[in-house]
Write a structure and sequence with these properties.
heterodimer, A: alpha/beta, 6-stranded parallel β-sheet, B: 6-stranded parallel β-sheet, two-stranded antiparallel ribbon, 8 helices, globular
Chain lengths: ~180, ~200
Amino acid sequence: MGDSSSIEALDWRDEIFAALKAAEIRQVGYVPDAGHARLIELCRDDPAIRAVPLTTEEEGVALLAGAWLGAQRGALLMQSSGVGNCLNMLSMTKTCRFPLIMLVTMRGEWAEFNPWQVPMGSKTQAALELCDVLVYRVERGEDAAETVAAALEIAFNGDLATAVLLSQRLIGAKRWVK
Amino acid sequence: MISNDPRLDRRVAIRALLENRADLLLVTGLGSTTWDAASVADDEHNFYLWGAMGAAAMVGLGLAIARPDRRVLVVTGDGEMLMGLGSLATIGVQRPPNLAIAVFDNGHYGETGMQASHTADGVALIGIAQACGFKETFDITDELGLREFSGRIHDAATTVFARVAIRADEPPRALPPRDGVLLKNRFRRAIGAET
């Protein structure tokens, strides 16, 4: 393989971004998040993508419904705690069969420092599935882009709601500095 | 008695906003503003929310961003707007020039039995919109104000926000289709998107 630095130039976050670009994602709603920081930066820097910071994640569900009504594809970036904020909005996604892809960085699982993150983090997948969102979980960086690409296919070809959960072990537990 | 009431009739208000609508795209919020729009005419360029309270303004934002070639109007009620108040901050940052938001403010939750809303106790939506960065706001209490705002829906260069003071009454309901898939698909077809 030789020089490892050239191989490392593209990490899984960049690969997820490439998957979003390949699927012609034009609107990205997000709530600022350390795990998504790189992806948010890439979206904000891309002139073909309108990156929309949200005050709460449920706004993003509505934003992307509007985008689809106007024939644009979008994606929603959030942390697992934000999934809880979205539940009633997902009733619109289901009733109208809006395509949806949520990329969710997990908190409250692997080596979590903050117990307040655990109740929502430990129920994130169950809550999504209760709302009939198709959930895909990523544990390894090399699976990330392929999983996101697969979820994008299902979402936009089938008018279905999908979520890709990026595990806390993958992202790295939050480091606390005193 | 009605002649002394400074507030507008909601059906007069919706007709004024949709008069000469041309190819205006309309999003209405859960409840009375959906009935208001349907009372004028069901139109495939209307997307009515029958649920997802608090979503109307954000659906309008996503639509306006996606279709910069079209004008987008959101009409919703004070209760629906209050539930999505943070979206005014989000839209205040984006401010697409082709988006207009009109909040029909009667100070009450009409669909649940006319309980008072926060605006009845002094919460000022106009002040909130201004503080969120909206550059053009309209506090409308008469038909002159309605006409002025109606024009800006079609030619403003920034997102415009209007609070329309309406009476707390309940005119006969006009119910549009409530099949979400139908509403979505006919809307997309009407604006030339594949379905």
